[in-house]
Amino acid sequence: MKHKIVAVDEESRTLCVSMIDGDLMRKYPMVQQKFTVTPIVTQGHEQSCLVKLSVEYEKENENVPHPHEYMELAAIMNQAIARHVAKNA
């Protein structure tokens, strides 16, 4: 599975990524993820962040199920981004 960064907005801390290759594209010809990072300070005054993920996709036809496996992978990517941002904040 290959992805391409299609937009980065430093001000809003947003990253948009589109899937451009892979087996999943046979069932979902369009998949785009949008990651938005919001810095937060915890009650213990530690720096952290909240990463919001939205996924937009198009199914090949109405018989194709929702992409639950892809969503699990997206959640793992979301956690990795949150750790990276928190470490490098």
TrEMBL record:
SUPFAM superfamilies: Bet v1-like. Residues 1-88 form the Bet v I/Major latex protein domain. It comes from the Eukaryota. One of its GO terms (biological process) is defense response. It holds the Pfam family Bet_v_1. PANTHER family: POLYKETIDE CYCLASE/DEHYDRASE AND LIPID TRANSPORT SUPERFAMILY PROTEIN, POLYKETIDE CYCLASE_DEHYDRASE AND LIPID TRANSPORT SUPERFAMILY PROTEIN. Belongs to the MLP family. This is Bet v I/Major latex protein domain-containing protein.
